[in-house]
Structure prediction request, 307 residues.
Amino acid sequence: MTILRVALNQTETHPSYIALANYSDRLEEQTDGRLRLDIFPNETLGAQAEVLQLLSDNIIDLGIISGSQMENLSEDFLVLNMPGVFDSVEHQMPVVHDPEIVGELYTSLEDSNDITVMGGFTQGSRHVYVKNEISSLADLDGVKIRVQESELNLAMIRALGGSPTPMAFGEVYTALQSGVLDGAENNEVSYYTQNHYEVAPFFTNTNHLVGLDYMVASTEMLEGLDPADRQLLEDEWINTYQDHTTLWGAATDEAIEATKAGGATYLELDQQEVKDALAPLADEFLTTPVQRELYDKIRAAAPEQEG
Ligand code: GCU
Prediction:
């Protein structure tokens, strides 16, 4: 029997947990119980930076890892974390599963880090939320906002006028509650499942990034699997990310409704002002021909805008 240990930093109510649990059920069914996942939610195996190391060392098998962490291993991953690189989840999901576009990127860390990327779950659009009401980006001046630990994330919040503070995901609630932070940035789903709305009730529509969580595997584990099991794992991953994408839309609507009922206020900021503030980051961060080429391929795959 093969049991693959998966690290996740979300709660059991989050779509990523549910999609992984369904993935495990399908693997189990199709192998008469020989292959399944053991999912460790809530950062129980550590924050994502630690999980990456555990994957590299083949101590655990699989992990859901945010793009920002991957950016710290390879500047090429940074391209998929750029504001504006993806227009929407509908643009993002086919691209991040298209071997023509991401095939090389996903195997690029096998020699150096012993990890292989299998694909990704969307994080939807990320937005800034704060403790005190704001009406424009100018009001973010001096506001301490938690970011994921990467240079691009720091630059994004600086560009929006805030003061970025890098921190692991699991520490954010307490830091908001104690006033170490004035705000954070995430999607509606995590805003809800992490209860951040209780301590930072003003959610703005900055739309600064369509985020991505990668499904990262230990290369040694993949290579050690029975070839038929590896094929099944890869085939069923396709159904898993598609299941997740379907769950995502409903979870976002539910999160908005529940956080509003819990006292959150959704504020509208000027979208053009946000776009203009973030535009210079492309020249600053996309500095190599490989990055540029990847960026251009992703943009070329964007669905045509209506109207
Ligand atoms: C989202 C994402 C996580 C990430 C988190 C964060 O919830 O799905 O993978 O760790 O944001 O802001 O750290």
About this structure: The mean pLDDT is 97. The chain is about 45% helix and 20% strand.
